[in-house]
Fold:
Amino acid sequence: MKTTLEEISPVKKKLLIEIDSQEVDKELNQAYGEIRKKAKIPGFRPGKVPRKILETYFGNQVLDDVTRELISKSFPKAVDEVKTFPLGQPILEKEPLKQGKDFIYSAIMEVRPEFEVKDYLGLEVEKETFSVKEKDVQNRLEEIRKANGKLTSIEEDRSIKEGDYVIVDYEGFEGGQALEGIKASNLLVRVGNNDFHPKFDEALTGLKKEDEKELVIDFEEDFYHTKLAAKSVHFRTKIIEIKELVLPELDDSFAKTLGADFNDLDSLKNELKKSIISQEEKRVDGKFKERLLEKISQGIDFELPEVLVDAEVDFSIGRLKDSMQRSGSTLEKAGISEADLRKEFRPASEKRVKEMLILDQIAKQDQIDIDDDDLERGYKDLAENMRQDLETVKKYYEARGQVDAIKEKLLNEKTLNYLVDHAKILKEEKDELSQGNRDL
Structure:
């Protein structure tokens, strides 16, 4: 076997592989030998069918099977020989397989870029300081109170006002024709939230139960719902019911309804303060790591493998789809174009891929790796987050062949923590840090 590696770009290679005619003949003879044992052709005894007859009946199948076999055997050896390993599925180009002829094929593949990272230890990076105030606890308490409120129908004969919850039917028309998918029955709208469009909420304000109203909304060109963007739409609406949110009293009794751990309102407030502190610590730590990675990334320029960027975009879109499905929606229902999403998500995906490759390179340069203890801790964290048994989580990832993916994620985290440990932290107030970023 002969191998030749050609460079198309820093992240794209063409691997040429030539398999000797003797190996080709050996595989073809073996394939026909196996078929001869099993073939049942009228006029010939089993195992006695001439090769020419077998080629007539099974030639195309044999050529396809042997071609796949030769590639599957030779390709791993070839990439190991040239020390270049593909990201994703290579694009194969092959000549027809022929008896007595060398078999030549090529594989165009994307690979990790080669680069060096310098001056990444001891960097000065700003880290935000924070404190949790009483108003922060009160705001969180109010959120919980609203979440436990009850929607109650308004009995008095009054008009809709901001803050009311309105059940409404509507249908949209353009040029007198009903717009597909722009129709809803018993839709719950919180007036003033402007979840759909400010003019829609404005039109509801002042109406009463059973009232009907027609309105026209001229949607912006960049409106999120592509079926409505840049259109002038005529809406017919009808108020079915008006409700208001009745909130519980903030007292010890309310605290007790939220869990056995809360004996009174003070114990609830203490737990909320701990929760806010934990969330703020994670947020501040995450922002600090972002700044550190951005500082390291400055001045490092290399081509990104498309296969990694596309995979990151796919992951982001998949996560959005899952989230929408859980809420009973889809991209199509929301009028969101997947093609537009791909464009929107691409810059952030490119940034994540670049940072991941930089972390991989630093791990390589400083010989950082994942050992069994690191993997075990990673599994424990996953088990806690998933609220599953540790052994169940291990078997889940092992069965799906995702252990390497977990190791790669853990290696990135370990490398990032290594960089944090060697960074010089500059403490800054949140407002000062924001001002500093604006001045950059």
